């Protein structure tokens, strides 16, 4: 999972990758730290062409998270071809995330 700290890095990632998952979290967010490896494993197993990136909202990515209007944690955003397809906030499961990713991923990569 890449670490993103600036809006410029984020824009470059979204322009260069057809599918991106952003995890907005924090070092002191227990749920965020528990989700991060589980999301990484799910993506590696089921969605290998989806590039994952992490924004530390309590550290180096604090300004970026404010620019993106992220005010609670965790937040996951899923982009295909630079367009946001899904956003999950605070309380969600891996099944919810899988449901948000599956159809657009299959349409993008298995057509």
From TrEMBL:
CDD domains named among the record's database cross-references: TRX_family (cd02947)
InterPro entries: Thioredoxin-like_sf, Thioredoxin_domain
Lineage: superkingdom: Bacteria
Pfam families, per the entry: Thioredoxin (PF00085)
Gene3D superfamilies per UniProt: Glutaredoxin
Residue stretches in coiled coil: none
Thioredoxin domain boundaries: 11-102
Protein name from the UniProt record: Thiol reductase thioredoxin
Lineage of the species this protein comes from: Bacteria, Pseudomonadati, Pseudomonadota, Gammaproteobacteria, Alteromonadales
């Amino acid at each position: 999972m890449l670490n993103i700290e600036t809006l410029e890095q984020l824009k470059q990632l979204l322009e260069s990758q057809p599918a991106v998952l952003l995890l907005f979290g924090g070092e002191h967010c227990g749920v965020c730290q528990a989700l991060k490896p589980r999301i990484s494993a799910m993506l590696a197993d089921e969605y290998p062409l989806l590039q994952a990136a992490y924004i530390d909202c309590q550290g180096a990515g604090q300004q970026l998270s404010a620019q993106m209007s992220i005010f609670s944690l965790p937040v996951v955003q899923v982009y295909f071809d630079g367009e946001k397809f899904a956003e999950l906030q605070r309380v969600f499961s891996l099944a919810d995330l899988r449901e948000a990713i599956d159809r657009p991923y299959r349409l993008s990569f298995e057509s």
